[in-house]
Automatic annotation (TrEMBL):
It is found in: Cytoplasm. It catalyses: (6R)-5,10-methylene-5,6,7,8-tetrahydrofolate + 3-methyl-2-oxobutanoate + H2O = 2-dehydropantoate + (6S)-5,6,7,8-tetrahydrofolate. This is 3-methyl-2-oxobutanoate hydroxymethyltransferase. Gene3D superfamilies: Phosphoenolpyruvate-binding domains. The gene is panB. SUPFAM superfamilies: Phosphoenolpyruvate/pyruvate domain (SSF51621). Its EC number is 2.1.2.11. 3-methyl-2-oxobutanoate binds at D50, S51, D89, K117. Keywords: Cytoplasm, Magnesium, Metal-binding, Methyltransferase, Pantothenate biosynthesis, Transferase. Belongs to the PanB family. NCBIfam families: panB, PRK00311.1. One of its GO terms (cellular component) is cytoplasm. Homodecamer; pentamer of dimers.
Length: 261
């Protein structure tokens, strides 16, 4: 576990984590008790991810998550966290242009986020420039972009060809030049993720992108076995909370049945 500076300066905080030599730890959080537990455990970063669309709201993917959803859940996480960096996703449709991105980013920051995350490279450069100019710190997201899963026809590994790998590397360099604090690499081929890390100085945080990143992020529901209906192949599971909940419910039902003769 690292001991970085205050998360109110995300760039300094993330740089300190990177320079510590430890792997940066990040997990998703969507509510007060989870955020508080993870924060007290010493997690470096809490991501209020639009993955809540699937593991909390029951949607098929992240596309239908709204800005109001993200604001509500960001507020809950902020009330539960005292030390971790809180990163909130800008959901699909909330950053279609620079002005909309800034307005959406301010709502998330007002709810308690320390910085916002949005998907894409060169195509969202104007939005990133506007956010940073407005004083809203930004984390980038390259590789597989969940908000585009419908148009891509599924979740697909990225960086498999040299052309695709070079596009990711070029986008990472551009995002660094624009001033993002870190870049999440999702479902990027391992050696491509390593090349990205070598090409930039800001932290890379991987999910399904191998070990050659400065940090790793996972969905807490995968880590704890809270969502048993699907778990990505790369996601470690260290607990089986779903089974414990089911057993608690059946034990409660059995206890109630014994209350009447």
């Amino acid at each position: 576990m690292s001991e970085p500076s205050s998360p109110t300066r995300p760039d300094h905080y993330l740089a300190a984590l990177q320079q510590s030599g430890n792997v940066i730890s990040a997990l998703t959080a969507y509510d007060y008790p989870t955020a508080r537990l993870l924060d007290e455990a010493g997690i470096d970063i809490l991501l209020v991810g639009d993955s809540l669309g699937m593991v909390v709201l029951g949607y098929q993917d992240t596309v239908d998550v709204t800005l109001n959803d993200m604001v509500r859940h960001t507020g809950a996480v902020a009330r539960g966290s005292k030390r971790a960096l809180i990163v909130s996703d800008l959901p699909a449709g909330s950053y279609d242009d620079a002005g909309t991105a800034v307005a959406s980013g301010r709502e998330l920051m007002d709810a308690g986020a320390h910085c916002v995350k949005l998907e894409g490279g060169e195509e969202v450069a104007p939005q990133i420039e506007a956010l940073i100019a407005a004083g809203i710190p930004v984390v980038g997201h390259l590789g597989m972009l969940p908000q585009h899963v419908r148009e891509e026809g599924g979740y697909k590994k990225k960086g498999l060809t040299e052309d695709e790998a070079q596009r990711i590397i070029n986008d990472a360099k551009l995002l660094e030049q624009l001033g993002v604090c870190a870049i999440v690499l999702e479902s990027v081929k391992g050696n491509t993720a390593g090349r990205v890390r070598e090409a930039i100085t800001i932290p890379t945080i991987g999910i399904g992108s191998g070990e050659d990143c400065d940090g790793q992020i996972r969905v807490t529901h995968d880590l704890t076995g809270m969502f048993p209906w699907f778990r990505p192949a790369f996601a470690e599971q260290y607990a089986d909370i779903a089974t414990d909940i089911s057993k608690s419910a059946t034990n409660y039902i059995d206890a109630l049945a014994k209350m009447r003769p």
